[in-house]
Amino acid sequence: MKPVLAPLALILAATAAQAQTMTERLDPDQAVLAAADCLHDWTMKPFDQLASDCVDIAFSDNLYLRELFAWVVFARVTELIPDSDGPGMNDTGQAPLWMSWATDPETFDPAPQDGKNTLAAFNFDAREPRNQMRPSTEEKDFARMTLSEEEPTHISTEDPDGANEEVNRNQIAYDYLIANGLTTKAGVATFFETHDTVEMPVGSIELKASWLQVTDGSPAPEGALTFPFQGGTYWWRGLHIMMKMRPLDHSSPYDIFYSEDPSWFWSTFEFNNNPGTQHVRDALITQRAPLDPALIERLLTDMKSEGFGFENLAPNGTQIRFTVDGRGEPVILGHTNMEDFAGKWNTAQPYNWVAFEASCHGCHATASYRPNPEFKRNPAIKNPCKDDWEKAPVFFPFSVPVGKLHPGYNMQDACSEVAYLGQGFMPLDFMWPIAFQTK
């Protein structure tokens, strides 16, 4: 196996002169050393150790180091595994590791019994890619969040344009959600009787993949990776990545809503030849620093996945906080399909966009829950939209803020009432699936 450190050192040395975003905490020589610690045995480290060893480069203000870490995580989650039950991606007999991880429908029980999750425990050891599409709610289709216990959240998982989004999580994230009962509404209510915030473990990884069905009129583009799910073949348009790097140091749970001190690392990979992708990357994304192709090839080679087609995707950028420097300009990051609702002016024509109001960190930061045990125990309250809205336990309405948040940040909910982030909402640690998927 060829070492990664030597080409990394050469790349950093060559780019240091023109890079204006070099970290204040690490000079280029120190950056090489930090990357060396991260990259030592990086292909085999457990994800919690990878996060701990790589936190300095993941949270560096050096965008090249951040992009390097984005590729490290991408290469790890796309480790190739056998597809024993099917032809695999592009008829190779293989598929990426993340396709063997738990999806939302395999984590959140759609019909809990007495408030408890009755799903069988997910078997991560099988390392077998699924052959059935298991879509999650798309953000743009998140119609409403009902508040009554008699009528669970209703959300559509069918997309008329043949596109689907799947959320996957690694075992670290899955085990925490299951152990803490955060996969049902009743479990969430019980959790917040003794906790003031969700705190996902270091090494947790949540992914969201975008797929588009292949048809005669809509074939897969050249260079795309395809997979034959039951019911049709889809091509892979990209992957959102969020990885918990360290606990957020907070004296109050509300700090999570507003702090510029990072705890999660974000990147979103997109198929390079998606219409308009390069325009969005060049003109609208705020923090992006493409790596030398030779370094990308070396990383994929170390994972034995070079030449498979993963090099036809790339990060649109990275994000670690609300703003570029912790003080001013909002960070813009998103995927032109998964966040097409944030593009202006025609959401279906990213090559014409003049603005892209998407922020992974900003959007997920508002994932929160306002508990109220008294409401839960009061059978007289049947419809919180009419009876007693202020006492209802409720998730904060989905929204897409960019830039820093403040306690007065608000959004209208399904009851046409305005919910204020600073009025009793408790953080879900950036985990929208808890709000979207619990029943």
From TrEMBL:
Q: Which residues form the signal peptide?
A: 1-19
Alphabetically list the UniProt keywords: Signal
The protein, known as: Cytochrome c domain-containing protein
